[in-house]
Amino acid sequence: MMNRTASKITNMTVGNPVRIILTFAVPLFIGDIFQQVYSLVDTMIAGHFLGEKAIAAIGATSVLYSLLMNLAWGLNNGYCVVLSRLFGSGSKEQFRSGAAAMIKLNLGIGALLTVVSVLFLKPAMRLLLTPADVFDQSYLYIVIILGGMLTTIAYNGCAGFLHAMGNSRIPLYFLILSSFLNLGLDALFVILLHTGIAGAALATVIAQAVSAALCGTYIFRNYREYLPRAAD
After folding, report:
1. What residues contact 58, with CB distance under 8 A and at least 6 apart?
2. Closest by CA position to 153, among listed 98, 100, 111
3. pLDDT tens for residues 48-86?
4. Nearest to residue 205, comparing CAs of 219, 190, 224, 186?
5. What's the rounded Cα separation, in Å, for the pair 64 and 126?
6. Which label site among 28, 31, 57, 110 has the fewest CB atoms less than 10 Å from its CB?
7. Domain range list for the chain
8. Model confidence, pTM
9. What's the CA gap between 88 and 192, in Å, rounded?
């Protein structure tokens, strides 16, 4: 187990700095692009098969959706900085304690934001001047996305854990896989099952949940000694 874990860790303080930084940063850059693919795919499928109002409905929620994505990404980038420093200190006990804190904060903040955002969603949409003719469709789409906020936070939390280990490739692989899954689910729900704009939103949430589950499973299998224990 220790040998397998060691093979999955990159010591970013040893070797050519430029090569190490580029090797780590390029997958992050590509991942930022694929994070936007979810919304883009929904817009393409909905626009082609559901019409112009579906595009307008999704577009009207783009600010709220971007806020959600950037919040999940920003929070876990912050946690990643702390975990990276704890990992660099060489203390597994402190790292496990930091990972436990990250999990608790993600769950607590995620649950709070989900409840608050859903409760105040309609006033927020009116404040953003969502057009009346697409208001109901916009609400249906974004309320499903917000209901699945914890899946987005879970993926970003798992990705942050791996980034702290110097591993930026594996989260990218799972993100790319889930992007293609999102495309397939969009086609299934919208084209074959005729679930409308709700199907496009549900496809996004399911795809994000799968990427989080895969990332979490990979961590459990390869970094078990760094995972929090009951005492943490």
Report:
1. 39, 42, 43, 46, 138, 141, 197, 200
2. 111
3. 787 888 888 888 888 887 887 788 788 888 998 999 899
4. 186
5. 12
6. 28
7. 34-226
8. 0.85
9. 50
